[in-house]
Amino acid sequence: MKIYDLDRSNAIYIQATIELLVEGFQNWPSAYSTEAASKEVLESLEANRLSRVAVSASGEVLGWIGGIPSYDDRVWEIHPLVVRSDVRRRGIGQALVADLEILAQNRGGLTLWVGTDDECGQTSLSNVDLYPDVWTHVWQIRNLNRHPYEFYQKQGFVIVGVMPDANGRGKPDIYMAKRIERESSR
Ligand SMILES: CC(C)(COP(=O)(O)OP(=O)(O)OC[C@H]1O[C@@H](n2cnc3c(N)ncnc32)[C@H](O)[C@@H]1OP(=O)(O)O)[C@@H](O)C(=O)NCCC(=O)NCCS
């Protein structure tokens, strides 16, 4: 498996990435239509962004990660990240995050962040009223059904906030971030 820039001129990879996005989120409330996935993939190719695909030795697109800069490139949002469902838990997601981290560092990034929704009761932050002691709930978070926040924790991210009811009452978005600044550049 190798990781490459998603190249605007590579129609085969672009089509495969669109299909990956549709397939990878198909059971989610916020699933992508083919049209929405096409828009997302094409937007990822804008000049200031990062868009990287993990490709197998036989040329199949197995995973995709996008990076969106803000705060004069100091902060990079992971959006989106998806690994094909039949090849998950083999280190591809981890490799894509590590790759994006280096590229964001090279562009002056200090922070990588991600918003990871809980729309389906996957964590203890869902289906409860998080107000007023939001942080008590955050400190006590539990993974009820394979929510990816633990995937991000394993990559060194910590929870830096939560938006209660972001996806409807009791369906929060969980914000996670990681310092990516090189020791030598401080
Ligand atoms: C989340 C996702 C990108 C992870 O990719 P992956 O290739 O399966 O992850 P990896 O194999 O690199 O996993 C790295 C580590 O995280 C763990 N991990 C992966 N997914 C996890 C989850 N849902 N919950 C808890 N731990 C998880 C792995 O077990 C592994 O642990 P280890 O280092 O102790 O062995 C993938 O499951 C996916 O595409 N999910 C659907 C879309 C999605 O949720 N995207 C993120 C939205 S914010």
- H/E series: EHHEEEHEHHEE
- H/I helix tally: 5
Into which percent range does the helicity of residues fall? 25-40%
CATH homology group of the domain at 110-186: Gcn5-related N-acetyltransferase (GNAT)
Bound molecules: coenzyme A
Q: How much of the residues is beta strand, in percent? A: 25-35%
Query: What coarse outline follows from CA principal-axis ratios?
Result: globular
Could you report the average pLDDT, rounded to the nearest whole number? 96
The biggest beta sheet is recorded as: 7 strands, mixed
CATH architecture descriptor text of the domain at 110-186: 3-Layer(aba) Sandwich
What does this structure look like?
The chain has 186 residues and is of the alpha+beta class. It has a domain at 110-186: 3-Layer(aba) Sandwich (Aminopeptidase). Helix content is 27%, strand content 26%. The chain has five helices and seven strands; from the N terminus they run E-H-H-E-E-E-H-E-H-H-E-E. It has helices at 11-24, 34-43, 92-106, 134-139, 149-154; strands at 2-5, 50-55, 61-70, 75-83, 111-117, 158-163, 173-179. A seven-stranded mixed β-sheet has the order 1-2-3-4-5-7-6. Helix 1 (11-24) packs across helix 2 (34-43). The radius of gyration is 17 Å and the shape is globular. The model has no long low-confidence stretch (mean pLDDT 96). The site of coenzyme A has 19 residues, from strand 4, helix 3, strand 5 and helix 5.
